[in-house]
Amino acid sequence: MAIDATGRCSAPARSADADGRATAGRFECKVCWSVYDPAAGDPVWQIAPGTPFSQLPPHWTCPNCATEQSGFLPLDD
């Protein structure tokens, strides 16, 4: 959190898709709680570090339990 010019607390801006779903930051699988961290990428799927969740290939699934991307929720870091 940061303090803006008016003295109010403001959360850091997050990117969102057309449906309002977050597209940046870390995401957690709703089934097994595995976390996709863009800073680490995904060595199982050979996803390079720095790849945001929104840029994962359509066939990417949870490397732990095979849940599809729609089964992930953004984490509030």
Tell me what the structure shows:
It contains no helices and five strands. The chain has 77 residues and is an all-beta fold. It has a single domain (23-77), classed as Rubrerythrin, domain 2, CATH 2.20.28. A three-stranded antiparallel β-sheet has the order 4-3-5, with no helix packed on it. The chain has a two-stranded antiparallel ribbon with strand order 1-2. 9% of the residues are buried.
What structural keywords apply?
single chain, 77 residues, mainly beta, Rubrerythrin, domain 2, 3-stranded antiparallel sheet, two-stranded antiparallel sheet, 5 strands, globular
How are the SSEs ordered, and which strands pair?
Layout: E1 2-3, E2 9-10, E3 27-29, E4 35-36, E5 72-74
Antiparallel strand pairs: 1-2, 3-4, 3-5
N- to C-terminal separation? 10 Å
Counted by DSSP, the helix tally is 0
Strand order of the largest sheet: 4-3-5
On the 0 to 100 scale, the average pLDDT is 84
Largest sheet: 3 strands, antiparallel
- In terms of DSSP E residues, the strand content is 15-25%
What count of structural domains? Answer: 1
Helical/strand content category: mainly beta
Number of strands: 5
Concise description?
The protein is mainly β and 77 residues long.
